[in-house]
Amino acid sequence: MGSTDYPLDRQDAHQDVHQAIRPYVHSDKLSFSDALYVIVTTVDHKKLGLMYIVASLIFLVIAGLMASVMRLQLAFPNGHVVSPATFNRLFTMHGTTMVFLVGMPLLAGFANYLIPLMIGARDMAFPRLNAFGFWIFLFGGFLLYFSYVGGGGLQGAGSAPDVGWFAYSPLTERAFSRGLSTDYWTLGVLCSGIGSLASALNVIATVASMRCPGMTLSRMPMFVWLMLVDSWLILIALPPLSAAQIMLMLDRYLGAHFFDTQNGGSAILWQHFFWIFGHPEVYILIFPAFGILSEVIPIFSRKPIFGRPAMVAAAVAIGFISLSVWAHHMFAVGLDSASNIFFAAATMMVGVPTGIKIFNWLATMYGGKLIFRTPMLFCIAFLFQFLIAGLTGIMLGVTPFDWQLHDSYFVVAHFHFTLVGGFVFAIFAGMYYWFPKASGRMLSETLGKWHFWLMTVGFNLTFIPLHFVGMMGMPRRIYTYPYGRGWELWNFVASVGVVLQLAAVAIFVWNILQSLGRSDSERSGDDPWNAWTLEWATHSPPPEYNFEKIPVVYSSRPLWDLKHPEDPDWEFE
Amino acid sequence: MHSETYGDAAERTNLEHIHLPAPTYWPFVFSFGLMLIFAGLATHWIVGVTGLVIAARGAFGWWRTVIPIELHEDVPIDLLRRPAPISIEGRSVIRLKLGEADHRARIPVEVHPYTAGIWGGLIGGIVMAGLACLYGLIAQHSIWWPVNLLAGVVLPSIGNASDDQLRAFNGLAFFVALGGHVVMSALVGLVYSVMLPMFPKYAPFWAGVMMPLLWSAFIATSLSIVNPALNSRINWYAFVACQLGFGVVGGYVIARSTRIHTYQSLGFAQRAGLEVTPGGHRQEKP
Amino acid sequence: MASVSSALVPPVIDPAQWKLPDRGIIGIACLIITESALFSIFVVGYIFYIGKSLNGPYPKDVLHFPVLGTIALLSSSVTIVIAERALEHGRRALFQLWWIVTILLGAFFLGSTAMEWHQLIVNEHLTISTNLFGTTFYSLVGLHASHVIVGLLFLLLVGAVTLFGFPIETQKRRVMFLSWYWHFVDVVWIIVFTVVYIVGR
């Protein structure tokens, strides 16, 4: 009898003490209190990953409902559904929740669940830090939502943030925001941000130090590569936000003057600092989507990814360039020409590696045997929608064009195409693809297709018209609009699309619940999609230790090599 | 290399337990305390102080799970979650090498020699010059008219010259125009020879007709900056005719040259002539 | 595994030879990188506001180069290396001695900063809300000082457990990581005093 060692700290004295032997086997049924204990004490990357994803989905529904209320208010001119103050809280909380409590934890969830499985490890490099990262994210979210009851209580919706998700100064200074809304925004996001940093550090350490024998960096799955670059971006781009928030708190509580224009401070400085974080942030959000696409498309085209090295290089390039484009959010602020030109040029440049990625996904599909199951459908929709998003982004990168459309619904349409049409669709693809691995059951393909079509039609119905009203001059963040500007038709159409999207998400949730709840749902087996990366070499769901033996790999498609010993990849790589 | 610890993916082990980090609630406690510290700023200082106490206790507890030794537990092999062996998809594969039967060939597979490109460019250039001088003779009664105007790209004096001066022979302009024309013709011919194999079907049409039209259009947009003297006097029909002459004749010369095979299925040493294949000279496998 | 007649044999990989970087090194390196990003923003803020205060006191009037504190902090980086070397060679008492010297030097630095702040606040009436110089000075130096405090706390923890007989020899790696953090804090101080006391005057 023996045991494998985890983790391999070679330099410290070897303490071969077996502290505990688990009394139960993982797949035993647990009572509710036992399950609660497991949740609070777990350091297992798979459980934490699922906890991240479940929490994000709950926040997704909450923020989605907020958006639905906003669209109800905007469906007709002179709407009376909510007051202006409530509307401000809605769009602030919608944006803040979606970015920090849905986007970031979803990417942490996917990364933490998949990375050890994909690199042949038993857990992340720092399992306890992993747990800490999840809980501080969740508690940060609670703190943010506590604002609804804190301060003024529920009457008047408490002190929920109402300053926009980017909290521009000087609105956020004490003089102009006397309540606690800005403080809750700052503190909640600061808290959750610590979790993101912890997660990113963990990913880098895991990828650097825990790959299985034979898995050189060039043999790592694309998803892992993209999460590695993503984690570097998080490490570098998140601290500017925290720094700016600390400065804001110093302004508000200790009378500092960082952004206090009445004492020589600069409100523009906040914008610089925020967008130095904010622009890389959107790439931080989209990289996991790129990673999911790079895993799903090859499997459903039955072809290896086209141009692997170029895909990795493009990801690194996007990461670098994204750190230099931030002021394209500030074209209308009145920076000097040289700055505007520089940032416009850099914004153009970032389109090039992104285009390389899109071309390579298309080239992967070209000549492949396409299988149109739900994950692939979401990926294909991503390609169309992200292309449109990228094009409108490049358009907005042309400074004079942006001067006309800054703060209009055109911008809203652009970033929802990237974030919903891109990120959310890719997340759905990833869910359908890896749900069988995590649960051992297949999701219903019929419900999946309903979900897909309702979501695609609804999403496009909502966000394509918003381009038009933006070009017709409708500004962002207005709680209503008058008759006679030609905005009525498209706003109404956009609001109709919301109904379809709500139905789609409801079907998705139902799909998950019915698959988990029924005793006769289709079992997936270890490898339902005939895939090639290591996570498919485990039982579905995997045991706590992932692999009975740490795998040794010889190429970037270890399962292909095992299934095709007469035609292995390592002959060519 | 197989042992009880390492193996192929989905291999089962004979071990009974696997060493994993022990679960612990201290990170949960520490994060709760940390959040309360932040919350204290927006609520009441007592909340913050409570958070500090909880966070300190949590930090200490967390510390003890790692120092002096990381707490582990032995997890028994889960008999209900054993991996299924990976089955071989039986089939045989005939593998083509790069370049064999055009497998993953990098086009072009056959190329034109560079010398053909330069000759084709020069001959095309002669035809172009001939046509231009013909135009000059017919329209301006002087073969020096197009020569002088061409030199206007480089010589600023041409921009101020009167029509009579442009009809007269100008030594400097002649040499400038001749030199520039020869160099450009040769270079364009070279590019032509490299690109010709990559044009679609009916390459002579695309290369000989469409390309000159395209670059004429491009010149039309920039001529006012590059050569204002020519721009104000140019006859576009004649200009395009000269370009077409270059394209068609030069292209014909290049296309007629013997193509060189790139032998992509051979290794570099053989293609470079450093090594010799068994047959004694470069040959492609069938 | 059944061998197919055309099956090929992969190159040999010996798991025992598979060496990857230590996760602790990567972890502390990532922490240092992310903290550097945090400090960069405060430094940029400081530089941005140089000369922009609407009213006094101004840097050249009230700032005096903190010679002793700087020497103390920079020397503590040397003493911590000496302590580490002693630990490497198993000289426990020597390690404890130099470790305590490091702590004292760090505490001296904090003390000198506190005294400087006291003098600035009480005598020169420079607070964080007085003007832009006050805002950026106290926030940048304060951020650095907070990192020194955290570092000192960990140094004290290590010193205390060693004093109580803990087998610190088994934690050489972690002591090394702590010293890296301490060196980082030192480098940040070099940047901070260059920006504040040299460039900003």
Residue-averaged pLDDT of chain B: 87
Return Rg of chain C in Å: 23 Å
The CATH topology of chain C, please? Four Helix Bundle (Hemerythrin (Met), subunit A)
Tell me, what's the shape of chain C?
A: flat
Spans of at least 5 consecutive residues with low confidence of chain B: none
Which structural class best describes the helix and strand composition of chain C?
mainly alpha
Number of domains of chain C: 1
Count interface residues per chain for the largest interface. Answer: A-B, 81 and 64 residues
Q: Biggest sheet of chain B, in brief? A: 2 strands, antiparallel
Please sum up the structure shown.
The complex is a heterotrimer of chains A (573), B (286) and C (201). Chain A has helices at 32-41, 45-74, 84-119, 127-146, 181-209, 222-254, 267-301, 308-322, 337-365, 374-397, 399-405, 409-439, 445-471, 488-517, 558-563, and one strand at 550-551. Chain A is mainly α.
Give the tags.
heterotrimer; A: 573 residues; mainly alpha; Cytochrome C Oxidase, Chain A; 0% strand; B: 286 residues; 2 domains; two-stranded antiparallel sheet; two-stranded antiparallel ribbon; 11 helices; 6% strand
Topology readout:
The complex is a heterotrimer of chains A (573), B (286) and C (201).
Chain A: H1 32-41, H2 45-74, H3 84-119, H4 127-146, H5 181-209, H6 222-254, H7 267-301, H8 308-322, H9 337-365, H10 374-397, H11 399-405, H12 409-439, H13 445-471, H14 488-517, E1 550-551, H15 558-563
Helix pairs in contact in A: 2-3, 2-4, 2-14, 3-4, 3-5, 4-5, 5-6, 6-7, 6-8, 7-8, 7-9, 7-12, 8-9, 9-10, 10-12, 10-13, 12-13, 13-14
Chain B: E1 6-7, E2 17-21, H1 26-42, H2 45-66, E3 72-76, E4 110-111, H3 114-140, H4 144-151, H5 157-160, H6 163-167, H7 171-195, H8 203-226, H9 228-233, H10 236-256, E5 260-261, H11 268-271
Antiparallel strand pairs in B: 2-3, 4-5
Helix pairs in contact in B: 1-2, 3-4, 3-7, 3-10, 4-7, 8-10
Chain C: H1 23-48, H2 59-62, H3 67-88, H4 92-123, H5 132-163, H6 172-199
